[in-house]
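To whoever is covering the structure queue this week,

Two jobs came back overnight. Logging them here so there's a record in the thread.

Job A:
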Amino acid sequence: MPPVAVSLSDQKNALREDLARRLEAVSPAQAARAAEACAERFLALPAVASARRLLVCLSFGTEISTVPAIARLQAADRQLYVPRADPRDGQIHVHPYPCELVELGFGLRQPPRGAPEVPSSEIDSTLDAALVLGLGFDEGGYRLGHGRGYFDRFLAGRRLPAIGFAYELQVVPRLPREPHDVPMAALVTEASTRHIRSRGV
């Protein structure tokens, strides 16, 4: 019998399950060390060192913690913003941070709808760089998220350097790719810094 073709969606879902298992196996001590090391690498990137206004993802669950990176950015007097994924329009909205946060059913914290936000027409002129989380990344800078496509839509057509922030165990040689997928400009883990695209990162 000929081999059964596996759809792109099935490939991605299998990877999500594998990566979720990898993340669940990280001990609290490993997680704390990795978050500090990843924050140090992130802040050392030229695009981040020169940035005054940054979009930062708030980690939750088994994701690598962004708390150390955010604390260092705040200590350096950077202006921070956080994303809000809105299922009504399928878009990411950008809100100044610190701000009020609400916790969704699966643990993600984000600003409530109606909170002060950056108009979509001003996002490109407001943000200098972005810290982006995900379930997985590959050596080409492509990201595997939860399947909703929010960040790919947000980053499409923008000059904004998006920097993946992850554990080394989340990096795979190559992810399944679709035409709308947008690669990161760089990827930092606790063990390495990968410069993907030449945008001063």
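Job B:
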Amino acid sequence: MPAYLPASWTRLIYYLEQWGVNIPRKDAWARVIKRSFENVSYANGLVYIDPQKPYVGYGYHDNIAVTGYDLMTSLVMHRGFVRAAELFKQNASLETLSRWNELADGMKNNIWRLFDKEISGFAAGSKDCHQFDVWANGLAYTYVTDEKMKKTIGEFYIMNKTRIFKYGFTRQIAEETGWQRLLGRHESPVGIYMNGGFWATGTGYVLPALADIDQQLAGDILKDLLSNLPKYHYTEWVDMNGKESDAKRFLMAIALPMLGIKSLLENKPLIEYF
């Protein structure tokens, strides 16, 4: 099971209830969510993926063998635990609620373990893929209180903007060699898909951080995205030469940029929508 799913299911149920839907059998749901959270491994407050048994962490890293401490999955799971503790406060035991709150606090307080000044920001993983994760740094930026760390991340985006951004779309990684390790049958050549493709989805992740770092750059990228999304048929991703993928009208190509814009309009951290 992909590690992030219990957080995503919790988010879905949480929003349905917020929208007035009566959630039946919440006690049973609480038990299911509890079991799902327990299927994920943790170490030192973060999600931990065994390098010897890599599997899918966060969904948009589906063919990347991020191992060790997993940044993106930990960020999303943090929000899952926060929501689960609120959603099931009348349905889960005090012991379970305490455990969820403990894990939520641990993830927020331990992401510094993945910050590496030598790569100028947060690494995707502490073992495999110890590389600057463009999307995840945008999401993690919310929790950075150290101004020097914020400046370091900002300088990376600005210095690598021609590698990271194209047509308003955003790569996951700036290195020309791509991710250090991919998952088995999902090998993809450098320059396409996760190993070099440009995604509208990714722009949603980085837009609020970019607006804080360089408002002009954020505005230019958003203008490019709004111009090119229809041109490229709301595709899942495009390659270096602007060739679009076969997946057209890709929902997340619209949803994530909208979430980034919503974060700016409502002046709320992007992570709070996860």
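Note for Job B: The chain has two domains: 1-130, 132-268.

Please reply-all if you pick these up so we don't duplicate work.
Q.
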